[in-house]
Amino acid sequence: MKIPCLRHILFFAFLSSFILLNTGCSKKSSTTVNANIPLVTTTGVIIGVTATTAQSGGILVNAENGTVTVSGVCYSSTNTVPTTADSKTTDSLKDTGSSLKSFTSNLTGLTTNTTYYLRAYCTNEAGVGYGGVLKFTTTGNTLVTATVSTFAGTGTQGYLDGPLTSAMFNNPQGVTVDASGNLYVSDSFNDVIRKLTSAGTSTIAGNQIIGFVNGSALNAEFYAPNGQAFDAQGNLYVADFGNNVIRKITPAGVVSTYAGTGVAGYRNGAKDSANYHGSTDSLAVFNNPEGVAVDAAGNVYVADRGNNVIREILTTGRTKTVAGNRVKGFIDATDAAAFFDNPTGVAVDSKGNLYVTDQGNSALRKITSAGVVTTLAGNPVQTALLNFPSAITIDANGNLFMADEGGRIMEYNSAGVLYYLAGALNSSGFVNGDGSTARFNYPQGIAVDASGNIYVADQYNNCIRQITLTTSNVAAVRKNKVTIR
Predict the structure, then answer these.
(1) Considering only CA atoms, which of 251, 246, 252, 288 is closest in space to residue 271?
(2) Distance between CA 6 and CA 11 in Å, rounded?
(3) Average model confidence (pLDDT) across the chain
(4) By the 8 A CB rule, do 38 and 123 touch?
(5) What is the pTM assigned to this prediction?
(6) Cβ-proximal residues to 473 (8 Å cutoff; 6+ apart), any chain
(7) Which of 126, 183, 343, 447 has the most crowded CB, counting CB atoms within 10 A?
């Protein structure tokens, strides 16, 4: 008997997870009974909902024993399980670079402040196959404009403290905001941590020497620091990517190794030697940690990119794995049965739910406090929906903000709607302005302050960008409609 290779096992596991979990398609919600009709899933997120428009779509997983002649989405404000007898779109199938095909559906003529039910469909000779049902509500007559400006930096690579407009950075990648609204930046290729206030830019830790040295902040050494997060006491935690550790910077300016040994690997256990439990205990080990977040209790969460897992450093001094199993893949499940592919960013809400930018899968994933992993948006075959997301943050209202390496800043709001706020897919540059007219160049870190201002570490532009959102009471599109694959 021929034993299938791991690659085939993971592919079929991905398909099973993708069909049943990731795009709203389930045995319960599907009306499919004929095995010869198409197998289709609904894109698992509604995009750019306005007063009268929205965007959705679907994926044709298998045409079964026929040729798909029509595809699109059907929707209704009264029928909770819409069919092609209700309103519908007709859309062209596009290749995804795999055995799957996808389509994008633009809905127009919707009614303001109305709840709709939607699902994807595909038709072949045997009949109509449906995906799972999604629910969304149109907005009022408002327009939200995202305006991008340069907050700090000149666009030229270098190292210079001082006024924000003349400060120089070298590939900044991590960014966060403290309780007072001050901005902190992991200036990765300068190997330092910078602080940005209205008075200007200053270096608070590091000395531009690549190394692994603790102690007083300006004598400490880092190696490509990345994601950052504060706890309630004002301690700053930094994912020291190149050193494979999590560092801690106290308000008094003392740098220490919070967890990790400095050697790349994977092991749970004590976060440091002070927390050993017996002679057989071990220190926790990480592999290129990139994103960090801290909950209200002081637990630190890590997107352990090189290990394809999400870790938690408990206040008890122990490190454990929350989800993932080190093998690259795309499977929604619980704890170690879930698969990730190079997770880069992590955020935590007030209920203890984690949100992860799963970069290799071009997806936004959610992990509940019980360890259950689901996909909120994106997947490996629709890479234009979320194009290799790099970082994530969350505001006090539970709205998520993400940056993707394709050059966009987006919001996944608490109602489950995805908005493209600024930038354009795969169109890099250094342009300020509104919405899709703005340009970024490989944006990485992202943070939001208490006033709703968004800050982005624009890596290849060597600067920090600011996005302000303004709302107008007009009947128009919120921002910005794009086409997904």
Answers:
(1) 246
(2) 9
(3) 91
(4) yes
(5) 0.91
(6) 141, 142, 143
(7) 343
